[in-house]
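Good day; I would like, with your permission, to put a structural problem before you. A protein sequence and the structure tokens that stand for its backbone fold form the material at issue. Thank you for your consideration; the sequence and its tokens are set out here:
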Amino acid sequence: MTQLFGSLRNLQSITICSNAITGQFFRNIPENITSIGWKITAKCNISSNLTLAGKGGNLKNFSFTTASSVSNLDLDLIASLINEMPNLMKMKILSYVKLRQCFHVNGLEKLDINLKRISLNCFQPMYSLKKLDMTVNSIREKKVVSYLKSFPNLQYLHLSFTYLDTFTLKMIESLCHLRTLKSFYYDDFKYKSETYSTLTDSSLNSLCEAVSMMSNVSEFDFLLINSTATVADFMQIILTLKSIAVQRPSHVFRLRFQEFYIPETLCLPENLFVG
């Protein structure tokens, strides 16, 4: 492996796709590599000696994608490897396991994580982070609130959940504290109206109230899926966003449902898209 890398002096990006590679070769990766993509397609025991041997300073982009067979312990090893990449700017972790160990990357600008669960109570503060895509199968509101405190300078935020216990004033306050945020994307794949308890206004659910209070955000995109939700539930959201969109004509609002048809008589402003 050392001889192979030695013959590729101008190589800057490498993608590894194999179920047999355990990660031992990382210590042989030359310093001219700035981007690594690692995809594990089947069961693989990652080496406990996983390390970049002090040569991770030039890495700017790292992605790690696995099938469901990777263990929690293996993902802990990946987190340790990430901590050897102090100048990383973009990172993607897609794995159907729990993230238990925190990583420390001070200069990270883009983070994309797709996990079954996150066991961490908080993330290391990342003041440089501008874009966050967070997809978690099951999570509690208090953890989301804690995580968002670690990324105060976000400009783009995409949250995607299959299960979220509540969306209350605590969540709204944490979103409103993101003063530099310009785009907010939000997906709930098991939307339940009771999750979004009404707060100061009985005509709003908490998601709509968040929109009304996030005046610095110019782009909203919501995907709400649940075949058991009533027409009245969704119409309430549409009409509330309609009133907000009229008051903020320079902002864009997109709202998507599953198997819900908008009445033809419903007139919407040009900056509100419902589908």
Notes: The mean pLDDT is 84. Residues 1-129 form one domain. The chain has six helices and eleven strands. The chain has two domains: 1-129, 138-274.
